[in-house]
Amino acid sequence: MQVYLVGGAVRDALLGLPVKERDWVVVGATPQAMEAAGFRAVGRDFPVFLHPETHEEHALARLERKTGSGYRGFSTEFSPHVTLEEDLRRRDLTINAIAQSADGALTDPYGGLADLHARILRHVSPAFSEDPLRVLRVARFAARFAPLGFSIAPETLTLMKRMSESGELTTLSPERVWRETELALATGQPERFFSVLRASAALAQVMPELDALLQKSPQGAIATAALHVAAAAGAEGPVRWAALVGDLDENEQSALQSRLRVPNAYSELAIVTHRLSRLMNAGHHSHDHLLTDAGKLLELLESADALRRAERFEAWLGVYAARTEAAGQPVQRIAALCSRLKKAQKACAAVKLDKSELEALPGPAIAAHLRERRLQALRELK
Ligand code: ATP
Ligand code: MG
């Protein structure tokens, strides 16, 4: 049997990037031979084995054939006669279809090296269109490698568009769509993921609510810029997501986020972002009144549930900063307002009623008294 390093590990090493995970392909072996060599079988849909010592994944070389619709509509065929070239041909992009043997020699039947140097994401073969997940993967690679200057080959984009228009993307499970989205949000230029999905007509299929928002002017450009600013600031995934979708209304957010089963850390922040932006914009063009108006400040903190959810409030400040910067507010003023809001949160959180105060008050009056003390703390805020 011959063993080759494949996929991201080869690609990233050639790009001079750190390699986190190594995938191997084994040619000329049977499951029995693998087990006899000490590998442990783990694959469910096709034969994958873990190396006895490194525990790295070793897949038997295989062929894939389209049998039905959607990403599950595949039959895989493996045998000791499947060649390395055949296995590489079923892969998505040429830069992901380079194999390296133990002596370092590269097998590159589809021009992956040339595309790596030319910084091009190009599909390997027409079989690309058999798996709609690949549209999302290419968008994600575009976002991840955008800082290196990668772009999508025109013929690949054309194919992606055709795949979207066929309606096949709607067969993707919400989990897979969200998984790709979450990974994309963590990349250097996550806004590329969404712009590629728009350019390939895929966004309307998988996130119609967001697609509609991004088409609006100027909201679409601001949402995209807000995501860019949040990512450039190194914000966490939920902050990036909320920066992008914060302008969707409650119904749109709820439709989008429940359909994709977006985790609470993301969805709650998006909901709070929308709620607070309505509160802050009600009747005001500038948010500067928050620097001076204790009543408004407290209303904002209450609406954000900022005292019980201090961490989420802090995350929201990041969303707010990204969104206001994207909307053209001066960075210094945003920073001043955010530090003011943080101080306000701390000052209110520090308000505690002592035992004698509590004992002197009838139960129903406690909340009102506490609120009054918080207002007082906010009025005294320097
Ligand atoms: P990463 O660094 O994110 O792990 P990767 O390229 O290694 O990037 P994996 O998802 O680990 O991506 O997949 C390993 C390899 O398997 C890919 O490089 C590609 O060759 C192939 N592959 C994975 N998913 C698909 C798919 N849906 N269609 C075609 N080929 C795929
Ligand atoms: Mg990998």
Structure description:
The chain is of the alpha+beta class. 53% of the residues lie in helices and 10% in strands. It is built from 19 helices and 11 strands. It has helices at 8-14, 31-36, 84-89, 112-118, 133-145, 154-165, 174-185, 190-199, 203-206, 208-215, 219-232, 237-245, 250-259, 264-281, 294-303, 310-326, 331-349, 355-360, 365-379, and strands at 2-6, 23-27, 40-41, 48-50, 57-60, 62-66, 74-78, 99-101, 106-107, 120-121, 151-152. The strands form 3 sheets. Strands 3-4-5-2-1-8-9 form a 7-stranded mixed sheet. β3 and β4 form a beta hairpin. α12 packs across α16 (310-326), α15 crosses α19 (365-379) and α17 (331-349) crosses α19 (365-379). The model has no long low-confidence stretch (mean pLDDT 94). The structure holds adenosine-5'-triphosphate and magnesium ion.
- Tell me the radius of gyration: 26 Å
Q: In which order are the strands of the major sheet placed?
A: 3-4-5-2-1-8-9
Major sheet details: 7 strands, mixed
Dominant shape: elongated
Residue runs with pLDDT of under 50 for 5 or more positions:
none
Please give the count of helices.
Answer: 19
Order of helices and strands: EHEHEEEEEHEEHEHEHHHHHHHHHHHHHH
The ligands found in this model are:
adenosine-5'-triphosphate, magnesium ion
Question: Gist?
Answer:
By secondary structure, this protein is an alpha+beta fold.
